[in-house]
Structure formats: structure tokens, C-alpha cells
Amino acid sequence: AAAGMERLRSAGPPLPPYEPLSEGLDMEGLQPPTVVTVEPPPPPPPRDHLAWSLCTSLYGNVCCLGFLALVFSVKSRDRKVLGDYSGALSYGSTAKYLNITALLLNIFFTILIIALLASGTIVMSKLFNHQQDQHTFVGPT
């Protein structure tokens, strides 16, 4: 086995002597490339939903949910200004859920009122027609 290794070593061209690279040079004799580390951009600040909360409190303040959403939106904005992104995210998500709840309740109550008005109009028109059929106008005699 040792003789086989000697044949493999002597088969190729002789290797040049080992020389350490001089300082500041890479294997091709060039200066190493400049490495620029790029930091990832900071995450965007959490949303505070202030405009949505303002509209909800002005136009759909069911059970004061719009006002509560506005309070939590302002708290979220204050936390964001102070740099507390976890607190801002918590207050912002609370404002978002309050806005969603107020919106769903507004839609439900609007549909309910429309249905009650429509059914009331139908009932009143039937009642009016029924009374008119019973009391026919005879005219002066």
C-alpha cells in the first residue's frame, strides 16, 4: 500500500514550495473584497387605526364602542411615539377589534330597522286598506 502511494505522488508534476500569503492579499494576489453589512430595515410601526376610530365614534357609536376605539387608538399612537411598539400593537389591535364590533353592530341594527320599517309599512297598508273596505263612503244624501 505504501508503494502505491509513492507512485501516485511521483506521477504528477512536483508541487511548488508552500509560501504563506503576504498580509492583505488573497490567493490570486488581489486585495480582498470589501464586505458591506446591510442591516434589515426596521419593521414598520404598528397601526393605530385612528381615522377608522374617529369615523366610528362620529357615525356609528353603538354602545360607546366607537369612543372606546378612539381612546385605544390614541393610546396606541402615544405608545408608538414613545417607542413602545409592543404596547402600541396591543392598543392598536384592541382598537381594531372594537371598530370591527361597532361596524358589525351598526350593520345589524341598520338591517333590523329597515326590516321593521318595511314590515310595519306593509302591515299599516293592509290595515288601512281593510279599514277603507269596511267603511265605504256613501256621500251626502
Automatic annotation (TrEMBL):
Q: Which domain of life is it from?
A: Eukaryota
Q: A Pfam family for this UniProt protein?
A: CD225
Q: Which stretches of sequence are listed as region Disordered? A: 1-23
GO cellular component terms attached to this protein's record: plasma membrane
Where are the membrane-spanning stretches? 50-74, 95-118
Localization, per the record, is: Membrane
Question: Which keywords accompany this UniProt record?
Answer: Membrane, Transmembrane, Transmembrane helix
Name the family.
Belongs to the CD225/Dispanin family.
Name of the featured protein: IFM2 protein
Task: Say which species the protein is native to.
Answer: Pterocles burchelli
State the encoding gene. Ifitm2
